[in-house]
Amino acid sequence: MSKIVWRILSSIPTLFGVLIATFLITRVLPGDPAVFFASNPAMSNEDVEKIRVALGLDKSLIEQFWIYLGALWQGDLGTSISTGQPVATEMLTRLPASAELTIFAFLLAIAVSIPLGVVAALKPGSWVDQLCRIIATLGVSMPTFVTGLLLIYLFYYILGVAPEPTGRLDPFMFKPPTVTGFILIDGLIDGDPETTWAAFKQILLPGITMAIFALAPLARMTRASMLNVLSSEFIRTARANGLTRRKIVMTYAFRNAMLPVVTSLGMTFSYMLGANVLVEKVFAWPGIGAYAMDSLISLDYAPLQAFMLIMAGIFLLVNLVTDLLAGLVDPRAGLS
Q1: Exposure string (b/e) for 18-44, b if CB count within 10 Å is 16 or more?
Q2: Cα end-to-end span (Å), the chain
Q3: Full-model pTM
């Protein structure tokens, strides 16, 4: 328990470092937000200067940073100059969309990669093993936006079996009453199978796109870990004692092979949080990743800073949960 508390406390300097880094990065971006915001040709230099004063850009970097820290301490993430809405409101509205897509893709990747890696390790050199290597290679070598565009071209444009990539739901359909923020779950709670099915069809292609990205490291790690355990001394002893193949694989080999896989699960989920930015743009998914990308284009500082801070917090939380799960698999490796 003390180690858990220590890990939480040690994350505070990390978050503060992220605050400083994101603040400085946004300030060195090329362009002037005041000029971008005052895009009306009729505006004079005096008008642009008034906008710069209103945005606080006339102050020194240190003054801007202290003002930002003071607002953050009060729970104020700032106001978006693009939408005019509080950034916290925008983030809370869009976060369920990103979370639903990421979790759906993550569960899909786990459901495919772990069985695939186990079978590939049990049958080295077989077609399953070759398939595992091909998927791992494709997942590593192809950017997520390329995979997404290829899937859209094949299943929407050529075959016509996928819906138009216009977000979480068809524009002519109504969302179910919000309970969890996840349309798939809210549709089931509301007893609306039509909306649930429509939402499932919309999330399938972007989910597969992100799942392919996650499949590569998970399948490769599962295969390598299983091969390593299957060649160990205690597995040979179990075989010599006459234990069944199922007993050896499921009870001894699989459990011992899961420790590095659990660690990879946490790292992969963290990487997926960054990968969803481009996927959301490709599929017009209204999540925080697409919101951050739009803010970057429009030099909107506040949403960018909030996005990076939220991603850093989630990254640290995922690492902590990963250590706890590793402790359940192997108490020697986890936190206590």
Answers
A1: bbeebbeebeeeeeebbeebbeeeeee
A2: 6
A3: 0.83
DSSP code per residue over 237-249? HHHHTT--HHHII
Q: Per DSSP, what are the bridge partners of residue 79? A: 86
Give me the amino acid identity at 145: F
Is the domain 93-334 a CATH 3.40.50.360 member? Answer: no
> What 8-state DSSP symbol labels residue 31?
S
Rounded Cα distance between 129 and 87, Å, is 47
Q: What is the pLDDT of residues 98-135, one digit of tens each?
A: 999 999 999 999 999 899 888 888 888 888 888 888 88
pLDDT tens digits for range 54-95: 767 777 778 888 888 888 888 888 888 777 788 888 889 898
Which residues, other chains included, contact 50 with Cβ-Cβ below 8 Å and sequence gap of 6+?
none
Owner of token pair 């402790």: 327
Report how far residue 123's alpha carbon sits from residue 16's, in angstroms, rounded to the nearest whole number.
48
Residues 6+ apart with CB under 8 A from 283: 148, 152, 165, 167, 205, 206, 209
SS3 56: coil
Whole-number Cα distances in Å, 233 to 117, 119, 230, 244, 252 = 21, 21, 8, 16, 12
pLDDT at 202: 93
| Cα torsion through 69, 73, 74, 76, rounded to 10 | 50
Task: Decide if 259 contacts 333 (C-beta within 8 A).
Answer: yes
Domain map (residue ranges) of the chain: 2-73, 93-334
String of DSSP letters for 130-193 = HHHHHHHHHHHHS-HHHHHHHHIIIIIIIS--S----SSS-TTSPPPPPSSS-HHHHHHHTT-H
Q: In terms of Cα–Cα distance, which of 271, 227, 289 is closest to 253?
A: 227
For the beta carbon of residue 241, count every other beta carbon within 10 angstroms. Answer: 8
Mean pLDDT of 198-212: 92
Which pLDDT score, from 0 to 100, does residue 231 have?
Answer: 84
